[in-house]
Amino acid sequence: MEKIRKIILSENEMPRQWYNILADMPNKPMPPLHPGTKQPIGPEDLAAVFPMELIKQEVSTERYIDIPEEVLDLYRTYRPSPLFRAISLEKTLGTKSKIYYKYEGGNYSGSHKANTAIPQAYYNKQEGVRRITTETGAGQWGSAMSFACNYFGLELLVFMVRVSYDNKPGRKLLMNTYNAKVLASPSTMTVFGRKVLEQDPNSPGSLGIAISEAMEVASQDPYTKYALGSVLNHVSLHQTIIGQEALIQMEKTGDYPDVVIGCFGGGSNFSGIAFPFLREKLLHKKDIRLVAVEPASCPKLTKGKFMYDFGDSAGMTPLLPMFTLGHNYIPEKIHAGGLRYHGAGVIVSQLLKDGLIEAKAKLQRECFEAGVLFARNEGILPAPESTYAIAGAMDEARRADIEGVSKTILFNLSGHGHFDISAYEKYFENNLPDHELSTAEIEDAISKIDITV
Amino acid sequence: MEKIRKIILSENEMPRQWYNILADMPNKPMPPLHPGTKQPIGPEDLAAVFPMELIKQEVSTERYIDIPEEVLDLYRTYRPSPLFRAISLEKTLGTKSKIYYKYEGGNYSGSHKANTAIPQAYYNKQEGVRRITTETGAGQWGSAMSFACNYFGLELLVFMVRVSYDNKPGRKLLMNTYNAKVLASPSTMTVFGRKVLEQDPNSPGSLGIAISEAMEVASQDPYTKYALGSVLNHVSLHQTIIGQEALIQMEKTGDYPDVVIGCFGGGSNFSGIAFPFLREKLLHKKDIRLVAVEPASCPKLTKGKFMYDFGDSAGMTPLLPMFTLGHNYIPEKIHAGGLRYHGAGVIVSQLLKDGLIEAKAKLQRECFEAGVLFARNEGILPAPESTYAIAGAMDEARRADIEGVSKTILFNLSGHGHFDISAYEKYFENNLPDHELSTAEIEDAISKIDITV
User: How many Å separate Cα B392 from the centre of its chain?
Assistant: First the structure.
């Protein structure tokens, strides 16, 4: 009897609402604070850099938020996305468990980032914005915004983290092809970029620095707004279409996941797949674990400190209550550039604090090993970021086999690695260092910031 | 009212048979000839390099051939493939016509090549083969075979055309990731490769040379066979799953194509989409045009000579009746490496001779321009090869608008360009030469071969 390889939904089955977990959290996150007054910020404090509709979504406690027709229309170019059962990988592992993955790399951007790029560009256009600035790490978010902005008739300026800009020229060229301007960050275009370069002319950059640069430019022009690809509530909200679809697809398989896994940078792809399942846990007492897998070189969830910190390096954002390594921390140059962020989104941070989700950290070599095994069995070449989720899923399968049980494991394969192939080359050349951040280094990084609230 | 963006079929709707146009051709192709005796070859002449099941398919005149269960199983990892309506592109062009495209880039190999790589690997494995040798141009076919061979437990040795090997390191690395060995061709591994290098140490290579090298290695070991990614009948046969699906999908749109378009290298992706529609034309008098679009730098269909010629540079293959530029012709180094082949498959050649299909040649700059416009509107970054089909479709739409009519246009988007992004860079840098092969050059190329049958 042949096993099912994939579950495809029709366009009619695509969810027409995003799910907002703020409605169902037992403990709501603490409010973002104004860095000057240390008082909770209001919508007007964000209006300089974000359009009002996204600010409303950022603070909304409505459980479901309608997806605009124009966004649904563009979602339909690639959604619903497929859910696969990894039957070849299962066989090779010899596991008794079932491994499923939701694949978000099959769209123009090659990752889940399109899911929030499209609505963000749309809402900005609706409110008369002409230009967007943003940051990008590995380039997935920048690619996603490039097409979306061009589609809706917006200009886009991308600050791309220097180390990725140098190592992943393909992503830069893709953004150019979609009509975006791309600068290496730190750049000489901004006051903050120049300051960083003064201190370290060879700075590899970080997402925190790139965010500061993009925000600086956006804050100087009323027709320019800023867009963020992860961390914020409205970004996670848009990504919940992943989990909403996966719930319908898992139901069609007749299985239900014991554990749902996502890799973790700022939190958006993990939130996207996990929050709808967490709703089932919270509201319908489903017995399910939700596991975020982060790099050992950037372990904010497993070793960071829960505190108020800035989302960017320059300290331009509101103060956010989150697990952080300190907003000045510059992570090692691992190849999963999208996971090189110092902090975790406020919702995920609160959920972790409350024990509703789990986190684990992994070294990059083991993740690439898992990625290669996956590619040779399932065909899809995973993004370096996504290999952390694969390695996490394989850990769960191995543990279940040791315990002599069969689990149903679901992970989010957040993107493909076509533009990251040089990282695989380094893996095969045995030229991929493992970095594990020590407690002393973390204490040092956090001691460098001086925030009292 | 929202327009349909894509038509997805369920796995149950996936065709379970390939369509063999040899059954329905009004004039059958002339037979392949043994290069020594000049007599029609028999199955035994091919047995040294191909497994018997593929030889049977090569000469079969059965209208439909069952797809093995194991092949269907792996097809299901990515098939049925989507059919899109290019509504954003239509809007930007301001055309009255409807443009549809079948997208074959959404699988592990990034192109239609997986459709024949999987059955070829399967049949070889079934017959006890241990190792496969093959050629690859741009690397799509090599990538497709790499995963398929590894999946079925076969070793793979790929001779990659030098110019692509140097310009597309990503494709080489992808093949390595799927566990294949890749050599630049001409190589020093074979007698023929050494001979070519002696004459021209800087030879950019060609598909013809790479085929000779791969066949030379295969012919020396009973457990090693050779696999070809285009040109041959069984390859086109496997690709007909594209058109078989497209027929069902077009029916669901309520439209019927006036013209079906594919880019043209050796003929496999064009045949794949066109033959099932040609069947409808031949058997059910459907009024439909089938157009192959080739590069002006390698115009075998539009300017080549119909004659018996070799499929490879060394003259190891049988003599094939085909449109050719001469088997020693080394095409200019255009970026659509998959279209740099001197000849056309025998079925396509006969159909063109009989006026049942059409051909046109285009310059690469215009095709890249079409590709960029497509990417900015539809999102998908096309392979350089596929841009020829896009440009061909845009020509049809423009012509219909000039004539004041609305046509339904269907083209095959054979693959994505993620590993070809440096070619787009050259396009933006205005560093993409246009080559048009002159009649004198063609006569010269053909005069260099000495074949009498």
Answer: 16
